[in-house]
Specification:
9 strands, alpha+beta, about 325 residues, 3 domains, seven-stranded mixed β-barrel, disordered C terminus, two-stranded antiparallel ribbon, Ku70, Chain: A, Domain 2
Length: about 325
């Protein structure tokens, strides 16, 4: 079993449960050592004075905050240590939010929370089931390794999962970072939009993370094995060219043909209540209005069924107007 990275107490209201924190992910990248070409000698980095070129002992390294070029405010390590939060013993949930309301861009690393002993499994299961049924996440702050973390705790399968999150001021404004974002006056033709929506629906599928592999890492491993065995190395194919705006509609039509032939019109409706003709995005919008739990993890078919059940009064079904 993996070793816990942190242990303490998870609390919500007056309910507490001792827990341990485990890393939920691992890096599968091939690890290399730096060597001097032509030898098997390892290359190591050293701390060097930029001006004199002399090596600097770790004990002589301080931190500097640059005011202007070449002018710094010096901060001693012990001054930062005095400000650093101590290791907290409690992950105290301060409130619950809809998991789907937390933007994915805020999530950083993922951990598993487990009960610290068998005697605590009932309380652990209580919180896990409550979060699973409501589709909510608990928001909490705690300290670990000299840092304060904003976190979201939610149920995922048999476990409670904890995501460390970026603080709001750490998220960059895309309009200040990304060139050539479409302006408000950029118009998209309705027929192109309908065709694009239709293509999206034709390519809709259930999410299966096991179906995807890191092909670059596979090629790196093949390269290493080939060099060990003295085999020929096959280079990967070149990348695909971008779509020309002039040929956009033609590209959409050819994409739909390749995805399965001519599809039904995007605006068509089937079914008594009109839900069969809605896109996944439109069904998700209705599910949000109805506050259907777990909607962020549902497929299009599951969303349609959940909305249909939520809007069907006793003794009959209520017809919904399709979103245009």
């Amino acid at each position: 079993m993996a070793r816990a990275m942190w242990s303490g107490t998870l609390s919500f209201g007056l309910v507490t449960v001792p827990v341990a924190l485990y890393s939920a992910t691992e890096d599968h990248s091939v690890r290399f050592r730096q060597l001097q070409r032509g030898t098997s000698d390892r290359v190591r980095n050293q701390r060097v004075n930029e001006r004199t070129g002399e090596e600097v002992e770790y004990s002589d390294v301080v931190k500097g905050y640059e005011l202007t070029e070449g002018e710094y405010v010096v901060i001693e390590p012990h001054e930062l240590d005095e400000l650093a939060p101590g290791r907290s013993r409690t992950i105290e949930i301060i409130g619950f939010v809809e998991l789907g309301e937390v933007e994915p861009i805020l999530f950083d690393k993922t951990y598993y929370l487990g009960p610290k002993g068998k005697e605590y499994t009932k309380v652990y299961a209580l919180l896990r089931e409550a979060l699973g049924r409501t589709g909510k996440a608990g928001i909490a702050k705690f300290s670990m390794r000299g840092r304060e973390y904003l976190t979201a705790v939610h149920a995922e399968g048999d476990t409670l999962t904890l995501h460390t999150m970026h603080f709001a001021d750490e998220i960059r404004d895309p309009h200040q970072e990304v060139d050539n974002l479409p302006e408000a006056d950029v118009t998209v033709q309705e027929r192109e939009l309908r065709a694009a929506e239709q293509l999206v629906e034709m390519l809709a599928m259930d999410w299966d993370p096991q179906a995807y592999r890191d092909e670059y890492e596979d090629r790196v491993r093949e390269l290493v094995e080939a060099k060990v065995e003295g085999k020929e190395i096959v280079r990967p194919e070149s990348t695909v060219a971008a779509t020309n705006v002039v040929d956009l509609m033609d590209a959409l039509n050819r994409s739909m043909a390749a995805a399965g032939g001519k599809a039904k019109p995007a605006e068509a409706e089937t079914g008594e209540d009109g839900l069969d003709g809605l896109t996944k995005a439109q069904l998700y919008e209705k599910a949000s209005e109805l506050k259907i739990p777990h909607r962020s993890t549902m497929t299009r078919d599951e969303l349609r069924q959940a909305v249909r059940q939520a809007t069907a009064p006793a003794g009959g079904k209520r017809r919904l107007k399709a979103v245009s």
